[in-house]
Design brief:
alpha+beta, 6-stranded antiparallel beta sheet, 5 helices, elongated
Length: 165
Amino acid sequence: MVLLYVMALGFVGWYLTRHITSFVTEFAQLLAHAERRGVLGSYLSGRSSVAGDYEGRAVTMEFQRADEYTVGYVVVAMKVNAPDQLIVQARLPSAEPDRDLEKALFALEARHELRVDVENGWLRARWEPAGFFIFPGRFDRARWIDVLTNMSVTASSLERRNSEC
């Protein structure tokens, strides 16, 4: 009877956490030349990452599993050749608005609930779900392709603005 109880608890635990390991694997399938990092230690630390290319741009994704002390998060970063403060300037009203940039930032921040910034030459989009949510949940391929596409548009727009300055 005890063995049956332990097996049932194990199954429930596996069922609730099975998306954790598949999230990084499925995200890696969206990237060219994908390379997973921290595979062995990821089960203990709860952190794993993948690096690769998307539309010719270097991309990294870091996944941190939620635990009793930390909130889980996903950070997708894309290499961009623009200064950190340019994204703040791009959000300010201007005489010649960049509609593609506005649409891409809206999609990232409003539709996908990501916090977007530029740090040390990387366009970063951070996702921390709030409320009762089994993190990260089922992998939504279409969502993350849209995130990567809008990040690529944002990076291109920022680089274009940087070259005009």
